[in-house]
Amino acid sequence: MNPSTSKRFFYFVISLVLLVINPLSNSVVVNESLLASKDFIIVKNPKRLPSRIPCTRIPLGINADYKPCIARLKSGELLVVAFAQRETQGKRDEYFISFRSTDEGRTWGPRTELKNGIIGAREPFLTVLRDGTLLMSAHILPGDPDNIMPTHWYSFIFRSTDEGHTWSSLVLGPKNWPVKASVATDRRAVQLSDDTVLMGVSTGRPNVRTAMWRSTNSGKTWDQSMLCKNEGWSDTDGFFSNSDTFVLASGDLLHINRVEGRNHPLKGSRFPGGNDNTDRSILWKSTNEGKTWRRIQNMGGYGLMYPQLLQLQDGRILYNFTVRALAYPLGIQAIVNYDQGVTWNFETDRLIIESKTPKGLASGGGYGNTIQLSDGTLITSYSYRGEDHETHLEIVRWRLPESK
To answer: In terms of pTM, does the model score above 0.90?
Structure first.
């Protein structure tokens, strides 16, 4: 899930092979009717939703920008963060970029490098707290020239009280962690009804430690003492890694994490092997604010990852995820939940939000999330790989129709 820089090219090549020859891939032949277009999101096997949903797509950034996240700030401004690479001291140096919109995502300001307290890293993901404080998770790889512990990757929680113009940073790594291992976090924090903020922090095998950090001052300081129990889980990376935690209306927590298929094989299905593109996702639930977690169910098959849950204004829950490998179309897809997290159907009403990575090319990231504006409009961010083999950023504005 967080491979060293030296492994990334190898993973890219292997992912191409998997997409072409894997017997579980459902073939690389793509049904053109299932491809999203510039003007429409396609719904696969529609039952409660229409077969096509109108949308507007807006490109952002330059070639090789990668893995965006979008947030609506307290002021109403929209902020997109992503990351890119450049060569520094003969190494790949990763850094954050941002874009802002003051008209609900219709137009966007210039591509700007995030500095002012930021340490260059990768995969930034935003949380906006009720008082307007911004928290941003990220991690850094061993090969990055900014890595101060080059034998490990480690994570950050960045914090801003001025809507992302300046930041403070908290390093989560072997030097300040009880277990001397690489440290991961949830992609975002969650805020409870009493304004307590939770952030999952963990390491994986063999030095497993899983904790739910708590803050009562909007992430300025954290109580790190609460360790979590999650029976039936073991993986190379932590329980809170490339994962999403979500607060239900009841106050209970749902958690979807990304796991390696070889460690958690699906019953009745052969593990396809290969690289981290064949990881999958599992749903967990906690009724005690994250102290203990109970495994609920698998969330789709191999190759589905980067989870994000969104509570919609009408009571439905949108679950968007990335199809990273094994079956085209690749990219961001979603399903809708109607019963506060109990029933998840991946076979009908599956939204193909974007499918721009061409057949035969490896994933362009997907990764992004969805937000909802006050008028009900949804905006989803994502990256894809173009015909030029480069990654590109885009957002799509759309609305989820009422169910039949």
So the answer is: yes
